[in-house]
Design goal:
mainly alpha; Growth Hormone, Chain: A
């Protein structure tokens, strides 16, 4: 999947977008995430153990919304159109724009909900038929592959097979830096930039998709 330059470039662009959005969400929520559900699951366990039911409910809500977004993305992909990637990205752009608009209208909690849905949706961009595809909003799997492919390279395998996954991780980190800076500048209004980026990517994918 990442062997093709187009796919790698798109995956890195989307990982940077996810990092940007997650950096904003992390700062706004004070330690919870809008795309990294492993972290939210750990926070859920800790809050349950401490008896902090309200904080635990917040973590559960984020997880449920993320799963709903992933399910919505899978439904779009199930149409099996040549332009399903484009439609997923366009849907993400709409959700992020809606989030920015909700913030402008003073409903930050609704804005966060739309952002989480968008992050779940994004993970369907590279979904393969019959199952999951490439995770774009979390990097644990990518870092595991870096280690595995690096070990393979040391034992006679492909020399640079680890590099694409390392680039995905680096893109997410760079995106998170930009998100943190933007949030410090204009708070959740920074999501407008994410919506614009998702819309641009949707157009690029549309223009570069091979017609049947």
């Amino acid at each position: 999947m990442l062997e093709q330059r187009r796919n790698l470039a798109l995956a890195c662009a989307l990982s940077a977008l996810a990092g940007y959005v997650d950096g904003i969400g992390f700062l706004h929520l004070g330690g919870l995430f809008v795309s990294f559900m492993s972290g939210n699951s750990t926070r859920l366990g800790v809050q349950l153990a401490a008896g902090h039911w309200r904080d635990a409910a917040e973590a559960v809500g984020l997880i449920v919304l993320f799963v709903a977004g992933a399910a919505l993305g899978s439904l779009i992909v199930s149409i099996r159109s040549a332009f399903c990637q484009c439609w997923v990205l366009f849907g993400e752009a709409l959700l992020l724009a809606a989030a920015a608009l909700c913030y402008a209208l003073g409903t930050s909690s609704v804005a966060i909900g739309a952002i989480v849905l968008a992050m779940g949706l994004e993970n369907s961009v590279f979904q393969v038929e019959g199952g999951a595809g490439l995770g774009l909003t979390y990097m644990t799997g990518a870092l595991v592959k870096v280690g595995q492919f690096a070990a393979a390279a040391l034992t006679g395998g492909r020399r640079w097979a680890w590099l694409p996954n390392l680039l995905l991780w680096a893109a997410l980190v760079v995106g998170a830096i930009c998100g943190a800076v933007a949030y410090g500048w204009i708070n959740l209004a920074a999501i407008w930039f994410a919506a614009g980026w998702a819309l641009i990517l949707s157009g690029v994918v549309f223009a570069t998709t091979e017609r049947d």
